[in-house]
């Protein structure tokens, strides 16, 4: 009963924060008005989850098929025909900035309410909002943190300025005229990793200092103090696709470095309080909520029955969508066994069902509210980004076991299940993906 009340409180918090954002956005955008209030045109109701990098753009260059695709997704008045959410593991900007960027590239209106960055679910982690948190990444990290609800924020730059002898790899940044006095900072209670930083050596060093001093980097390391203060990480992508012919290092690669450095020094595994972003369950729960809210704005009286996740990264997009689909199927069976009870899953239950790293507190990987969840989530893999038909990395036999050597690009804390890398469909580009969905759902795409 207490757990049910907890999930309801998470739902109310998340819903109120999104409703507040929608009201604010309504003064500067016409997203709320861009939907026509009409029921689904076809026999089924569905929502589309779009990855961005490698699906819609390559760096700053739009993929040609993306513009045509989105022309087909809106009517002559620029109103969306179906609920659309952009789910990206990027996190180096605000939602408003990303929405404006997409609007320019795709030549259709994109609202901040349609954009989900890797760190967006941190709005639910209220337990940490009043703590003093160290944030790592690039872009306006302090502004992003405050926007998510964190009240007491310390950046890496603030930390290195307060303790000028910590960052010494770059000799040009080292103190030249003696050792300046340490300003000192309040103790740090938790570390929030938004994305890969620009100066990896600085961030790796200072984050390690914070972890080994219990949040007091001016003190001496204590390698026996374990566990360390909480760490929340967003975006586990090992690789991502920009303009280059080959993938680039992502935040997942930075996490690999941090994890191995910490273990090399202490002998212990780095522990995460939460891992957020694709393929995390929390991310897909949050995306589902955004899809539901847009369906309501469309005037749909029937619940969204299916989700289609379109991406280019087998480990992030395909693995995550399939993981969530497995959770939905398991929850559906549980609801049937519970004889129609509306509460379809808990954090512990989802962990047992899909073997996913868990949010220990301040967040929910279960059902948000009492609405009927979708029947499933299909994964659609495009060939314009990380994945290429020339270099397939998908298991040829979904039933094969992991007996052969296989490179696993997923995060350390995710159990490797090769069957979850098998997409529901493989298509050439995003335009072909949307055409496939509309055809399967019996909708007309003009």
From TrEMBL:
| Gene Ontology cellular component terms for the protein in this record | mitochondrion
UniProt-listed SUPFAM superfamilies:
HAD-like
Please indicate if the UniProt record lists Signal as a keyword. yes
Is Signal among this UniProt entry's keywords? Answer: yes
The record's section on InterPro entries has:
CDP-alcohol_PTase-I, HAD-like_sf, HAD-SF_hydro_IIA, HAD-SF_hydro_IIA_CECR5, HAD_sf
Q: Name one GO biological process term.
A: glycerophospholipid biosynthetic process
Family annotation (Gene3D superfamilies): HAD superfamily/HAD-like
Alphabetically list the UniProt keywords.
Signal
Would you identify the family this protein belongs to, as annotated? Belongs to the HAD-like hydrolase superfamily.
Recorded hits in PANTHER family, A to Z, give: CDP-DIACYLGLYCEROL--GLYCEROL-3-PHOSPHATE 3-PHOSPHATIDYLTRANSFERASE-RELATED, HALOACID DEHALOGENASE-LIKE HYDROLASE DOMAIN-CONTAINING 5
Any idea what this protein is called? Haloacid dehalogenase-like hydrolase domain-containing 5
Protein source organism: Nothobranchius furzeri (Turquoise killifish)
Q: Could you tell me the gene encoding this protein?
A: CECR5
């Amino acid at each position: 009963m207490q757990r049910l009340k907890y999930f309801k409180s998470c739902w109310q918090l998340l819903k109120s924060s999104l409703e507040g954002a929608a009201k604010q956005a309504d003064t500067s955008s016409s997203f709320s008005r861009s939907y026509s209030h009409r029921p689904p045109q076809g026999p089924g109701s569905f929502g589309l989850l779009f990855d961005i990098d490698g699906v819609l753009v390559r760096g700053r260059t739009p993929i040609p098929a993306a513009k045509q695709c989105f022309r087909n997704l809106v009517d002559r008045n620029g109103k969306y025909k179906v609920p659309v959410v952009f789910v990206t593991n990027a996190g180096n900007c605000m939602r408003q900035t990303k929405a404006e960027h997409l609007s320019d590239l795709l030549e259709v209106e994109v609202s901040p309410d349609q954009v989900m960055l890797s760190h967006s679910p941190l709005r639910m982690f209220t337990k940490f909002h009043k703590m003093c948190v160290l944030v790592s990444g690039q872009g306006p990290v302090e502004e992003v943190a405050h926007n998510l609800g964190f009240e007491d924020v310390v950046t890496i730059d603030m930390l290195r300025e307060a303790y000028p002898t910590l960052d010494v790899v770059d000799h040009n940044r080292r103190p030249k005229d003696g050792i300046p006095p340490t300003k000192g900072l309040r103790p740090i209670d938790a570390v929030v990793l938004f994305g890969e930083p620009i100066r990896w050596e600085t961030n790796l060093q200072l984050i390690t200092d914070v972890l080994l001093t219990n949040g007091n980097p001016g003190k001496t390391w204590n390698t026996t103090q374990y566990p360390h203060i909480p760490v929340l990480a967003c975006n586990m992508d090992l690789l991502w696709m920009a303009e280059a012919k080959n993938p680039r290092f992502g935040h997942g690669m930075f996490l690999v470095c941090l994890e191995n450095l910490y273990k090399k020094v202490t002998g212990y595994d780095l522990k995460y309080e939460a891992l957020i972003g694709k393929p995390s369950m929390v991310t897909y729960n949050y995306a589902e909520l955004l899809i539901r809210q847009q369906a309501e704005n469309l005037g749909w009286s029937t619940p969204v029955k299916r989700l289609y996740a379109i991406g280019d990264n087998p480990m992030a997009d395909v693995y995550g969508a399939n993981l969530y689909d497995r959770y939905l199927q398991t929850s559906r069976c549980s609801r049937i066994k519970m004889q129609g009870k509306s509460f379809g899953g808990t954090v512990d239950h989802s962990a047992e069902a899909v073997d996913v790293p868990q949010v220990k507190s301040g967040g929910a990987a279960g059902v948000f509210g009492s609405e009927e969840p979708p029947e499933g989530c299909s994964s659609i893999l495009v060939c314009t980004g990380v994945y290429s038909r020339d270099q397939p990395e998908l298991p040829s036999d979904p039933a094969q076991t992991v007996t052969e050597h296989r490179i696993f690009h997923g995060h350390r804390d995710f159990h490797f299940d090769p069957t979850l890398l098998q997409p529901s469909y493989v298509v050439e580009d995003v335009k072909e993906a949307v055409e496939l969905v509309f055809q399967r759902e019996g909708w007309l795409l003009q």
